[in-house]
From TrEMBL:
Species of provenance: Advenella kashmirensis W13003
Entry similarity comment: Belongs to the UPF0065 (bug) family.
Signal peptide range in chain numbering: 1-23
Protein name: ABC transporter substrate-binding protein
Alphabetically ordered keywords of this record: Signal
């Protein structure tokens, strides 16, 4: 009898020790760090997907905005978090692809992140304040060349895809302009609404409301084809700017070391959210395409993006401290 009891105790102890630490996950709220200010695409999609994921996972998903330094502040906060699945990040093309070749030093490396899934990919759009006297890309090029004091452009921050897209545009038209960076797309949009600079190449979701309301004039989109949301707006190629196809993307990442079973659970919850009719419809309204890829597919995609943007940064001879 004693032997039987000892055997049961030993088996129970072994199961407790060998069982996954994540068996009860999640048993408390989950935080998604957004490395940008409220109101931009990163923030918008994090809130949309986070709410849906929370219902599937049975826990509240809290959005925490940590803007600044081209997404570096928020990304650094993520990699310092415990790899337990309770702190995630809404990664994007800036901090998770462009920054590696743009900055001499970073407080994180690509190995510090674990890919979960792509959430959305969107084209960028070249916009001006509707009061600016230009109605086409060609007219903007002329306007910049003839008005030295108006050679300015804004962006959601140094190193983000809007910044690099504008730099690429200036290279293509063989001009220079002063960059005015903001701490996120929301503040950058407000800046253009206030005519604080001349043009911006923004992620489409951040500017589409201002375009639809007539406050911004869209001159071109950076996708391979026209946006369903802006059928009358030409692509950069149609507007006379060759080799200017750029798409921004946003996806969930976790600190390296987060258990695979938790990552897979999050990916499945995100994928479920991204296939729900209201999310698909909302993303379409924003001009974006939903993701949902596996962690392995998203990791491969990020690797490809890092190489693509490294080529762009080196060709532009850009370097930041």
């Amino acid at each position: 009898m004693n032997m039987t009891l000892r055997l049961i105790a030993a088996v129970t102890a072994a199961l407790l020790c060998s069982g996954p630490a994540s068996a009860a996950w999640p048993d408390k709220p989950i935080t998604i760090i957004v490395p940008a200010a409220p109101g931009g695409t990163t923030d918008i999609v994090a809130r949309l997907v986070g709410e849906k994921m929370g219902k599937t996972l049975g826990q509240t998903v809290v959005i925490e905005n940590k803007a600044g330094a081209a997404g570096i502040i928020g990304s650094q906060a993520l990699v310092r978090s415990k790899p337990d699945g309770y702190t995630l990040g809404m990664g994007n093309v800036g901090p998770n692809a462009i920054n590696y070749s743009l900055y001499k030093t970073l407080p994180y490396k690509k190995e510090d992140f674990k890919a979960i899934t792509l959430v959305i990919s969107v084209p960028n759009v070249l916009v001006v304040n509707s009061e600016t006297p230009v109605k086409s890309v060609a007219e903007l090029v002329t306007y910049l060349s003839e008005n030295e004091d108006r050679r300015t452009f804004g962006s959601s921050g140094k190193g983000q895809s809007p910044h690099l897209s504008a730099e690429m545009f200036l290279q293509r038209i063989k001009q220079t302009a002063q960059h005015i960076p903001y701490k996120g797309a929301g503040p950058a949009v407000s800046g253009l609404l206030g005519n604080q600079y001349t043009f911006m190449i923004d992620n489409l979701p951040s500017s589409i409301a201002s375009i639809k309301s007539g406050k911004f004039r869209a001159l071109a989109v950076t996708g391979e084809k026209r946006s369903d949301q802006l059928p009358d707006v030409p692509t950069m190629k149609e507007a006379g700017i060759d080799n200017m196809v750029v798409n921004a993307w946003f996806g969930l990442v976790a600190p390296a070391g987060t258990p695979d079973e938790i990552v897979n659970t999050i990916q499945q919850a995100a994928r479920k959210a991204l296939h729900e009719e209201d999310i698909v419809s909302r993303f379409h309204t924003l001009g974006g395409t939903p993701g949902g890829e596996t962690p392995q597919e998203f990791a491969s995609f990020i690797d490809d993006q890092q190489k693509l943007w490294a080529d762009t940064v080196h060709a532009a001879d850009l370097q930041m401290q």
